[in-house]
Amino acid sequence: MENFEAAEEVGLEDPASVLMKAERAVAALRRFVSAAREANANTFDPAQPNADQRALHGFAWAAVTCEALAQLYGWASRSDAFGEGEALVLRIGFGEYLHQILGGLPMSQNEFVRPGDYGAKRAAADLAADLTVRWFLGHGNGTAARALLVKHLTQGWRPCESLGDEVLDAIREQFRRFTAERIAPFAHGWHLDDALIPDSLIGEMGALGVFGICIDPAYGGLGLGRLSMCIVSEELSRGWLAAGSLGTRSEIAGELIAGAGTEAQKAQWLPGIASGTVLPTAVFTEPDIGSDLASLRTRAAQGDDGSWHINGAKTWITHAARSDLMTVLVRTDPADPGHGGLSVLLAAKSRGTVSNPFPDEGIDGSEIPVLGYRGMKEYALSFDSFSVAGDGLLGATAGNGFRQLMRTFEGARIQTAARAIGVAWKAFDLGLAYALDRHQFGKQLVEFPRVADKIALALVETVLARELTYFAARTKDAGQRSDIEAGMAKLLGARVAWSNADAGVQIHGGNGYALEFEISRVLSDARVLNIFEGAAEIQAQVIGRGLLSGGGPS
After folding, report:
1. Per residue, what are the HEC states of 254-275?
2. Contacts with 5 (C-beta within 8 Å, 6 or more apart), sequence order
3. How far is residue 277 CA from its own chain's centroid?
4. What gap in Å lies between CA 525 and CA 531, rounded to an integer?
């Protein structure tokens, strides 16, 4: 226990003093982002957004990191249970991320960006000269602080997660209990069998309101906000990413129809989506077109009887066979090669079976075997005059599909960030449990500093990403534009989930590479989070351009 005993011998700062220092450091970080924004605004050419991607994306990553620290401070200042453990999280988080901002931020495993890469050398020098910043750089993420944090963890302490709202806290408790009883004990078996999520579990989730969290009660939903959605998604994903992801397609379809559908379309589809009796799937991506949706080629033409007929190919369609409703992005105006020629069709289909996954005429599909993110299955689809009812055009007006879809990205990315937080927590849980249970050289693994460091930073970064995600949800719930905040949350959350999973495998050693251990599933699941719902590079582009256009957090 030498590592923990050494920590006790070091006098650590009073929690109130750490909180005060963090407040001052946030002010310095705000000045840094403002100066960096000004420096980039003078050189950025909106007509050539990819001319210097490294600078734009580097600035975006710096802004994300600064905002995460601001939200970590917000969490600490709101907490009614701010004690030594929370102060350690604050201290280590500020110490580590300030060092990264000034010395090199990881945009990926082999891409590090420094202030000079995005014209912020002077701003970085001013940041480093700030007295409270200097304190965190020298005393924040130290060996003693990390060791003491892990000692708290081994004694059963966990950081405060109350949201100061009895309803939200009750939602968390309800779904944590449900996940522990109905998902976590079976998830790894389902993953190894590459099995679909059982219909019975979907029914239970529907009864709990998972699929109608943000749908208006007038259509059978709960009428709650994105923050509630985040809590539910986080807790379900902590059990299994697939369980937390079932609601993603319902979130996308529900927001599409609620925001752009006709009254008849809302009445037809929203009650079934909310109850879980209608399982939707999002049909956007094409074989050669991922993020560049404005260039897609799948076409839909209207016949004399008013019905639509789809021809083309789609890929990476999650839960396609078992779905009842497809939200399909198609080109309805071949003469318009850009986004103006796109529309969304609400295409009803028959639910498939194992023996006959696509029973309807005009649609066929082949499964895409995947490393992780199992439970719903991925498909490549082909359409050959697949028929859609004449009233299936979303909003009853052609040419609005791209804009309609863009409006759903905020909610979908916030929900995906929450899924990433759940995966990050699961990796942390497994890593800590293994480090406590496993002994080497007569010691628990957790007593070795390099192992303890991984656990400490996994916890701190998860809280950072969680608070940034909750901030994005609150912004959305306040009715404000939140594309930048949503991108920030998704960008950091995905990185933290992957980092935690990788650290968890390393803590497990060879066992982490064995399929029988859950951490192998978590690693496979975590990798996809940086790809779907907007790849990390797309998020950085959205954030950077948005900030330079005057948007984002103030």
Report:
1. HHHHHHHCCHHHHHHHHHHHHH
2. none
3. 26
4. 11
Using alpha carbons, select from 24, 66, 54 the residue that is nearest to residue 552. 66
Q: Give CA–CA dist 208/241, Å, rounded.
A: 18
Average of pLDDT values for 35-62? 86
- State how far the Cα of 483 lies from the Cα of 365, in Å rounded to an integer: 33
User: CA-CA distance, 343 to 254, in Å (whole number)?
Assistant: 17
DSSP assignment of 107-173 = EETTEEE-GGGGT-HHHHHHHHHSHHHHHHHHHTS-HHHHHHHHHHHHTT-------S-HHHHHHHH
- List the one residue out of 354, 352, 333 whose CA is nearest residue 343: 333
Give me 427's structure tokens. Answer: 């990796």
**Among this protein's residues, is 533 annotated catalytic?**
yes
Give the span between the Cα atoms of 413 and 539, in whole angstroms.
10
Neighbours of 442 (CB within 10 A): 6
Rg of the Cα atoms in the chain: 24
At 199, the amino acid letter reads D
Is residue 455 pLDDT above 50, yes or no?
A: yes
- Band (80; pLDDT cuts 50, 70, 90): confident
Q: State the catalytic residue, choosing from 461, 485, 518, 533.
A: 533
Q: CB under 8 Å to 70, separation ≥6 — which residues?
A: 26, 29, 30, 553
pLDDT tens digits, 226-269: 999 999 999 999 999 999 999 888 999 999 999 999 999 999 99
| β-pairing verdict for 325-331 and 280-283 | parallel
Distance CA 374, CA 358 (A): 19
CB atoms closer than 10 angstroms to residue 259: 14
Task: Provide DSSP, 446-480.
Answer: GGSHHHHHHHHHHHHHHHHHHHHHHHHHHHHHTT-
* Cβ-Cβ contacts under 8 Å for 493 (sequence gap 6 or more): 416, 417, 418, 420, 421, 424, 465, 468, 469, 529
Contact yes or no for 124/60 (Cβ under 8 A): no
